[in-house]
Amino acid sequence: MSFEFFAPCPRGLETALAAELAETAQRRLPPGALEVGADVPGGVHFRGNWAGGMAANLHSRIASRVLLKIAQRPYRSEQDIYALAAEQRWEQWFTPNETLRVDITAIKSPLRSLEFATLRVKDAICDRMRSKTGARPSIDTAYPDVRVFAFLTASDCTLYLDTSGEPLFKRGWRLDKGAAPLRENLAAGILRLTGWTPGTPLYDPMCGSGTFLAEAAQVALDIAPGLSRSFGFERLKQVDTAAWRYLKSEANTARNTAQSRTSGLHIYGSDISDVMLEKARANFARAGFGNVPLKQLDARNMTPPEDAPGILVANPPYGERIEVRGRNARGEARPTSRDRDDAEEGFRRAQTDADAPDAEFFQALGDALKQRFTGWRAFVLTSDRKLPGQLRLRESAKTPLYNGALECRLFRFDLIAGSVRQRPVQDNANPGGNA
Ligand SMILES: C[S@@+](CC[C@H](N)C(=O)[O-])C[C@H]1O[C@@H](n2cnc3c(N)ncnc32)[C@H](O)[C@@H]1O
After folding, report:
1. In testing the pocket of ligand 1, which one of 191, 271, 384 has its CB within 8 Å of the most ligand atoms?
2. Locate the THUMP domain: which residues (predicted)?
3. Position 340 confidence tier, pLDDT thresholds 50, 70, 90
């Protein structure tokens, strides 16, 4: 049986997700199990059978969820949406013993209240279940067994059954996140955009809880991102348990094979905060790759971790979220008790230093890149479009990406020997021109 699926992802990563899904289709799945369709703003459509949908859940590092399309029809009112939801055979998918949550996303919907529309979908499903089974499911917005998503455009309502459960960026092993972690699927998508491949040195000099490093280690060790978590589809009536057992055993075999042939990861991290590094170490140990070298270091003092050039990737502190630390310190980093309480200290400093620019820190960071990282490619994710000017480097490329609701750019700097693309100093005064 073939279904239509939609995999949402962070905006800006749609093409990367489509490529990743196409690779998943090559992972010893039967022909036609997963056929990638169009990528549209916010996600990728694909067709496939249960094995394809489950494989996407298990292997996608970039998707936020995998949604199974149940129905689509034009609508004009909440009553139309109720009728569409009431016609669907929900009793084929789950029982009234499962708890339910309904969410609606809308773009240009003419409806006045999305809250009311959400209630109508929920009522329709519960009424249908009661009429078919004699009982209705309870609602649980925190930990539902089953999630239904409705997507409204100006003209159409599409109903989806969520096959993922918890969003896919929750890999199932990360306990401690730190102050401003990246979502795992955004980090994984960025890694793909950098063109990094296992074996090439990878360095994050502001690694925090280590999201880039963890995602890279999982790629290098062929660890399927969903191997240590459960999924919504496991609670659905129609799940193909034999196919699921096969997919998991194939993923376990791939991990074991990769682990036995991988000698060194060539993945490195540092951060000024020993507290963040402790979190990263604890997470890596839980995930099964405790051997990523981590060092406490001010990024201004960073040096390449290997002789061979590689890829540097980082998301420096965002002004909106946490402060750059040690920016007034010269030489060695001086981590203090501040490291113990990011949020409170960040807030206090934001009030006292509100107008102090981070220019000194970023200029020193740019100098470190120019002087010590010849031959490397550096990728920096930031919401600050003035960053290239502050680093005094000219970017080779910039890709718009969203970190949650925060619009960011992934700047790429090619630190080519003898021809580092420096930015004239006066550019700092007028760093515009970044779309
Ligand atoms: C936005 S967070 C990075 C989050 C990280 N990507 C993660 O997933 O957890 C920025 C990091 O920069 C670190 N940092 C701030 N100032 C620094 C400095 N001068 N040198 C090195 N790291 C610094 C902070 O401790 C924080 O962990």
Report:
1. 271
2. 52-163
3. very low
